[in-house]
Amino acid sequence: MTNLVQNASTLEHNLTIPKSEYWVVSPVDITSIHFEIRYGDFMGSDDPLVTLARVGRGADVAFHVEVSSLHSREQQQGLIDELNEYLVKRIASMPEDSRFKNSWDYLIYHATQTAANLYGDYHWVLVDPSRPARAEPDLTVIKTGFWQKVKSLWQ
Asked: Which stretch of 13-22, 43-52, 60-69, 72-81 has the lowest confidence by average pLDDT?
């Protein structure tokens, strides 16, 4: 995969990124567990999803975001909206007695245990380099299995 950081300035020059104590555009350590935000229509298309950014834990701020080249201003704004939604708003609105110990736990839950991540154009994928590499999943099989499960719930 190409170095995502080389194109981070594209995002910074085309849009004003609000200063945040929660996330900053910065390199992500790909040898550690991190997320990829992929773009595309997961449910309605067989086209491959495009990696727009990586999100990793940071020491100086909660999250580092490494951005790839984006194809349109709408995609750029959508990525910023997605980051703010999941790295700021949802975290800030969690009750103190939440079952999630921290924001990282919530992101893992969102990316791996909810169907909500299937909808929309932005999809969070958990990447754990310590696990053996797997082939990309067959989206047709996933979609078919998902819809069969949904249909069975309505019968």
From this structure: 13-22
C-alpha distance across the termini of the chain, in Å:
43
Lowest average pLDDT, out of 78-82, 105-109, 146-150, goes to: 146-150
Distances (CA, A) of 53 to 11, 50, 73, 83, 111: 11, 9, 15, 10, 14
Would you say the C-alpha torsion 13, 84, 77, 59 has a positive or negative sign? positive
CB distance 102 to 87 below 8 Å: no
52 Cβ contact partners less than 8 Å away, ≥ 6 residues apart: 37, 38, 39, 67, 68, 70, 75, 79, 122
Comparing 34-38, 46-50, 107-111, 119-123, which segment has the lowest mean pLDDT? 46-50
CB-CB neighbours of 146 under 10 Å: 14
Query: Residue 56 pLDDT > 90, yes or no?
Result: yes
For residues 21-38, one letter each, b for 16 or more C-beta atoms within 10 angstroms of the residue's C-beta and e for the rest, the string is ebbebbebebeebbbbbb
The angle formed by the CA atoms of residues 18, 51 and 93, to the nearest 5 degrees, is: 45
Q: Which amino acid is at 127?
A: V
